Write the structure tokens for this entry.
Amino acid sequence: MKRNLGIALATLLIFIMSVVAGGTKASADDNSLQKMKDAGVLRVATSPDYPPFEFQATIDGKSKDVGMDIEIAKQIAKDLGLKLKVMDMDFGSTLVAVQTGKVDMAITGVNPTEARRQSVDFSKIYYNGGQAFLVNKKQLKEFNNAKKLHGAKIGAQTGSLQHKLAKQDFSDSDIQSMDKTPNLIFALKNGKLDAVGLEKPVAEAYAANNKDFAMIDAGYKLDANETGAAIAFAKGSDSLASEVNKSIDKIHKNNWIPKYLKTAGKYMKDNLQDTSMMHYWKYFYNGFLNTTLISVLAVIFGILLGILLVLMKLSSWKLLSWTATSYIEIVRGTPMMVQVLLVYFGLGAVLNLSALVAGTIAIALNSGAYVAEIIRGGINSLDKGQNEAAASIGLSKVDTLRFVILPQAFKNIWPSLGNEFISVVKESSIVSIIGVSDLIYQLNVVRADTYRAVAPIVVVMAIYFLMTFTLTRLLNHFERKMNND
Amino acid sequence: MTKTAIELQNVEKSFKDNLVLKGVSGQIEEGKVLSIIGPSGSGKSTLLRTINQLEKPTSGGVFFEGKNLVEATSKELKHLGESIGMVFQSFNLFPNHTVLKNVTLGLVRVKKMDEAEAKKTANDYLTKVGMDNKADAYPASLSGGQKQRVAIARALAMKPKVLFFDEPTSALDPENVGEVLKVIQELAEEKLTMVIVTHEMAFAKKVADKVWFMQDGQLVEEDTPGVIFNHPKHEQTQHFIEQVLLD
């Protein structure tokens, strides 16, 4: 099942934090159920890019989460007499959300592996679909049986169970991994791969919805705990877990799972009826709004932080200039992705920041360091006669910066500053890893919904280009205006 | 009997291992014009800059109004900016401000005048240097001579007790030199204490009350322009004057 770098890092961070905090709390005072009943709401985290488990469909003009897991969540909410609130986030963030209490449970096709049991509690297994391979229909004669895949090119999602299993059982094959399932499917279609290892219902869905593909059984011998799907809770939520298990029993007794899958299949069909990008404009539009919001805020706070850092650097107080220099060096010397994860899971866990706020803060903190260096370069490029002239009429250091140095520096550095703003727009895409629904996040949702690998990328690329192109024009306009002064 | 405005005691200045000023002593007299001449690299400009503390002297004392500026705190030196004005070779106008704002900036931020009073004062000084008609222009649109006249107005507006000129006409086209020298001459007639580092020998001869000849970081000879230019006592001075007059 889907697992990725995000969750590996998240687990690591949670592990570090729980070690720092002295381990998780004892379950003696389990009031998980009572707290939810008081609030009247069941908050559920999910990552809707995994049909038929969970994905998005347009219902009455609005995009909503649907799929088997959502149907199960609805039943649980009904049994508990609570209102269901589904919260979308990146798969890697769902278990973290459970641990930090942002949600009551996560239902997103999670395998209750031993490693995950260290940090969260799980319900009973509610579904066990088994493992399969997706192959090209025209190669079905060649690969009609999983055993024939020895020596072939097999793809799987990076770090997933399928990846691990393929490496174990097909050590003589060429195993390739990619981050996103749609990319694997595209590689299969292009003949770069002979087979893709998938959860059975997922492979089934692809085979049913695309006449180029066929499914074959993987034939792995597996422990149900490693392969089935279960619902995750925070450690010690025993009262909630036992209620949820009752609901799962009820669902199994009534054999409702096939019904749920059928409903999911109907939505998938609806999605596939019109896979034109126009039909999905709202997804792109929402992604555009979030990307714009994050970029604008990050640029504004980045400039303010940059100015502050430069002032600190110019300060005669050593501690201030040393702090600013260290900050700039650390930010410039580490990947932005790591910074985003640290702000969200580190700072965000203490201050309970949403992914959007944490992502914006991280990008502003990053941009500030670069802006500071650009401003410093602008100041250094000025004739030192400007400082001397200001001193000769008795201007204070602050006034000299404010009225003489900074206005000129800003004019000189405007082109470099413009480049930095454009970088912020493009690099803000990194926040999708913590589940902010920016353009990249929406791109993955649309790819999962439509089974189209390329068209959504082209659309998102065009949107990014329009954004940066408009920004470039705007910056040029201001540059001309300044030069006319 | 003239009063001393600034007294130098054995001022030395070195940049790393390079000794640029090798112990200069002397008095700058109040209400008089002192002209400093000498070959390039003799330390004339550095001397000016060590007096108004743009450069810290390596040793020695600079006494102004009874205080040794070398030992003054940065807070005390802030006040100095108002008392000793400076006109630079390359003008150093603020290119991001209009001519008027170049002059009012110090009045508003340092002298704490209100905007209207500052504008009136600035206009008075711009009129004095003949630049009032360019008050709203930006420095980039001015000729070198015009820029230097604005720079003089900017310095004068702060009502300095002493005004320094660091080669004020060296960066100018020949046709612009006259307009700047005329302004300086008018100031001399008003008995403003001035120190002028210059290569314009004829001008120095005309306006200066006293001339310092510097060579190799030392004050070689000081006297009236009449003596320095016509009957210099030192061989080095004679040599320099002869060379300059040949050009």
Summary: The two ends of chain A are 61 Å apart (CA to CA). Confidence is low (pLDDT under 50) at residues 1-6, 18-28 of chain A. Chain A touches chain B through 19 residues (CB under 8 Å).
